[in-house]
Amino acid sequence: PLIEKYAEKLNVQQSKLTNVALYKFIDEWYGVEYKYGGLSKEGVDCSGFCNMLYLNVYNKQLPRSTKGISKQVNKVPKEKLQEGNLLFFNISGKSNSHVGVYLQNNYFVHASTSKGVIISHLDNPYYKKVFNKGGTLWIF
What is the CA 42 to chain-centroid distance, rounded? Predict the structure, then answer.
């Protein structure tokens, strides 16, 4: 049912979703409210959420800040993004001030200030406008 749920949400075939740990993690954190500096299910910020996801799903430690994470990423063209890649956005004119994790089919998971942990689409006019880059961690 978990894979079924996310295949439907991301509009992909169930067979494409092979990383069960990733979707289980997202499912457990979905809807957790945004809290600047937060690192728990009581509240989490965007880099904190990515930190927890990378630690739990990929067993990798990320820098704590969005800026720090962005410095450790090899840029990947938008059309070549893969599940688990990190995405960076320029919010309020600040370069790489928001981070999320690419899923599939142009969807990504992130901790948004207004809605907490959610899945959004890169073609959403807002995210399309503020998208800066996506890429893989060079420490992978």
Answer: 19
Tell me: the pLDDT tens digits for 52-70? 999 999 999 999 999 999 9
Q: Cα separation of 106 and 83, whole Å? A: 10
Handedness of CA 61, 33, 29, 92 (dihedral sign): negative
Residue 112: strand pairing partners: 116
**What pLDDT shows up at residue 127?**
97
Angle, helices 2-10 vs 20-29, to 10°: value is 80
pTM score, two decimals? Answer: 0.96
Q: Which residues are catalytic?
A: 46, 98, 110
Helix (H, G, I), strand (E, B) or coil at 65: coil
Amino acid letter, residue 93? G
Cα 10 from Cα 83, distance rounded (Å):
12
R_g of the chain computed on alpha carbons: 14
Q: Dig out the tokens for 117 from the structure.
A: 């942990």
